[in-house]
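Entry
Fold in token form

___
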Amino acid sequence: MTDLLVARAGLADARIRGLEQDTRLSPQQDKALLQQAQKFEGFLLNMLMTSMRKTIHKSKMLDGGQAEQIYTGMFDKAVTEQASSVGQGIGIAQMIYDQLAPLARQSKQIAGQLGLQKDAEGTPNDR
């Protein structure tokens, strides 16, 4: 009787370990998720910079017109993209990643249980 219980416990443990392996994100998926989080952080920073720039009073003497608006818009975009992609940025990307990674693993697990996971060629696996 104890041998049967030990065997069942070992089988259950092996299934759990197999499930954990199946639900891990591949390095490519993990990297893509982090990159998208960094892009979103850059977008938020760009919106922040744009809003802050609108609060600056412009004098008529030094106003560069539409050319200045285009330049400052491009400059803000470049600065915020660089700020969000270097190191930890301001931390928003990491927080987004930390929130979305478990959801991505969970959706991968559900897709696997339903037989909707795709193989290496991108075609659905039929179990």
Observations:
- DSSP finds four helices and no strands in the chain.
